[in-house]
Automatic annotation (TrEMBL), chain A:
EC number: 2.7.1.-
Keyword field: Kinase, Transferase
Membrane-spanning segments: none
PANTHER family reported in the protein's UniProt record: TRIOKINASE/FMN CYCLASE, TRIOKINASE_FMN CYCLASE
Domain DhaL: 5-192
Record-linked SUPFAM superfamilies: DhaL-like
Name under which the protein is recorded: Dihydroxyacetone kinase-like protein
TrEMBL record, chain B:
Lineage of origin: Bacteria, Pseudomonadati, Pseudomonadota, Alphaproteobacteria, Hyphomicrobiales
Identification of the protein by name: phosphoenolpyruvate--glycerone phosphotransferase
Molecular-function GO terms, alphabetical: kinase activity
Record field: catalytic activity: dihydroxyacetone + phosphoenolpyruvate = dihydroxyacetone phosphate + pyruvate
PROSITE patterns the UniProt entry points to: PTS_EIIA_TYPE_4 (PS51096)
Subunit comment: Homodimer. The dihydroxyacetone kinase complex is composed of a homodimer of DhaM, a homodimer of DhaK and the subunit DhaL.
């Protein structure tokens, strides 16, 4: 069971990863997006961090619901509703004391919610191209962090079909998708903390 | 608007741009060309006031432009659309089905949608008229 301290550590790890990598995410987004992904995620997770005591006091599903709502309200780009939807869908699917199998199942359901929100599919150079392999790794027993990193790298040669990057057409090829990178960073931050807690 | 007209007699129009200036300027254009017959609200910028969109601001704009006949939202880029759809889902049930995002260019769409709305057209007709502006 992940206790208050564990939940607090998880939230701080996620927020810390987004805040620490804000410049890198913004640089990736300047190459193929509207150049605000890092700043947007930083703003959202700073708002999450501002309420870390209250959030960590809640059971995991309730904390995820509150985090999702904060991201929707504070991020200010398309990534707000997309990451917000991811967190809200996970909140709906996860029990208070989730197993690895619960995580895999909930993430698969949340991926469907993100697809609907973004009207996107796997293979279009988005965060989904990281989340889907992570769900598969969770299911098969493979390392989700390695899967996330490889999957983010694999977005480099892809051509963007959704979002601002899709306006660039072939010029979007050769750059890592910023949403794929932020997803990989979040997966790594969560997995690292879960290993420490467990 | 005449004193006898109910404020909800016509479909409301909401303009959502990444830029506060584009949102304000588009709304000004609608007011000059269409007049005051249509409930109109606009918002632009992220929660810090920079370029972007804010779900909270969109929720506020929907409230200001609310009409019993519904609200048509005109957006510029992807994030404005995604955030508007999120704001619609967060509405009370009795409202959610009467708010639509139009797939139309923001400036022309807002003027055409408002013109159609000012004549008392239904939400569906307002939307379809605006969407005729989009290349198929």
């Amino acid at each position: 069971m992940i206790d208050y301290k564990g939940r607090r550590a998880l939230i701080e790890a996620m927020a810390g990863a987004m805040i620490a990598h804000a410049d890198e995410l913004t640089a990736l987004d300047q190459a193929i997006g509207d150049g605000d992904h890092g700043l947007n995620m930083k703003r959202g997770f700073e708002a999450v961090l501002a309420d870390v005591d209250g959030l960590a006091a809640k059971p995991i599903p309730d904390a995820l619901k509150a985090i999702g709502t904060t991201l929707v309200m504070k991020v200010g780009g398309a990534s707000g509703p997309l990451y917000g939807t991811l967190a809200l869908a996970l909140a709906k699917e996860l029990p208070a004391d989730p197993s690895r199998a619960d995580l895999a199942r909930a993430l698969k359901a949340a991926i469907e919610a993100v697809k609907a929100r973004g009207k996107s599919e796997i293979g279009q150079k988005t965060m989904l191209d990281v989340l889907a392999p992570v769900a598969a790794a969770l299911e098969s027993g493979a390392d989700p962090v390695a899967a996330a990193e490889a999957a983010a790298e694999a977005t480099v040669p892809m051509k963007a079909i959704r979002g601002r990057a899709s306006f660039l057409g072939d010029r979007s090829i050769g750059h890592m998708d910023p949403g794929a990178r932020s997803s990989a960073l979040l997966v790594a931050a969560i997995a690292e903390k879960l290993d420490e807690i467990a | 608007m005449s004193a006898s007209a109910s404020p909800s007699a016509n479909v409301g129009i909401v303009i959502v741009s990444h830029s506060p200036d584009v949102a304000r300027g588009t709304a000004e254009m609608v007011r000059q060309m269409v007049g005051d017959e249509v409930p109109l609200a606009f918002c632009g910028g992220n929660p810090d006031g920079g370029l972007g969109t804010s779900v909270e601001a969109i929720l506020g704009a929907i409230d200001r432009a609310w009409s019993e006949k519904g609200v048509a939202i005109l957006v510029d880029l992807g994030g404005a659309e995604t955030n508007s759809e999120m704001a619609i889902e967060m509405q009370p049930e009795e409202r959610a089905g009467r708010i639509v995002v139009c797939n139309a260019p923001i400036v022309e769409g807002a003027v055409i949608a408002a013109t159609e709305a000012s004549g008392g057209a239904s939400l569906d007709i307002v939307r379809r008229t605006a969407e005729e502006l989009s290349p198929a």
